[in-house]
Structures are given as structure tokens and as C-alpha cells.
Design brief:
Helices cover 80% and strands 0% of the residues. The protein is mainly alpha-helical. It has 2 domains: 40 residues, no CATH class; 41 residues, no CATH class. The protein is flat, with a radius of gyration of 17 Å. It holds the Pfam family BPD_transp_2. This is High-affinity branched-chain amino acid transporter permease LivH.
Length: 81
């Protein structure tokens, strides 16, 4: 395969990943607004705390020499289709 096609596939994967993240955030906003009728302005902070905690845990495990690839792949294999 050509280098341009591989770059295109990588960018498609990045786009789908980012779009899925945006969709999950939008679903969270919709559910909170639908249930309590108010917009939760702390919603983004919850996502950022989760991402920072995940990053720190993975970085700490990698510094101890523990393989962390299973942390990144395993949740995707359990997700419903």
C-alpha cells in the first residue's frame, strides 16, 4: 500500500475515534438535561479528570515496567457492538 493511502486510513481512524468521543459527550449532556432539566457545566471537567487519571495510571505503570497495552485494548474488546 502506498504511504498516502496509509496516511488516509490513519486519519480516518483518528476521525472516527474523535467523532465517537464527541458523540459520547453529547449523549451525556442530553441524558443529564433530559433527566434533571438543567445543563451540567461541570460535565467537561468530569471527562478531563477521567482522562488525566487514566494517563497518570498508564504512565506510572509504564515507568514500573508493566505492559499497559491490555489497558488500552481490553475495554474495546468488551464493548457491545
Amino acid at each position: 500500500m502506498s504511504e498516502q493511502f496509509l496516511y488516509f486510513l490513519q486519519q480516518m481512524f483518528n476521525g472516527v475515534t474523535l467523532g465517537s468521543t464527541y458523540a459520547l459527550i453529547a449523549i451525556g449532556y442530553t441524558m443529564v438535561y433530559g433527566i434533571i432539566g438543567m445543563i451540567n457545566f461541570a460535565h467537561g471537567e468530569v471527562y478531563m479528570i477521567g482522562s488525566y487519571v487514566s494517563f497518570m495510571i498508564i504512565a506510572a505503570l509504564m515507568m514500573m515496567g508493566i505492559d499497559t497495552s491490555w489497558l488500552l485494548v481490553a475495554p474495546d474488546s468488551w464493548a457491545p457492538l
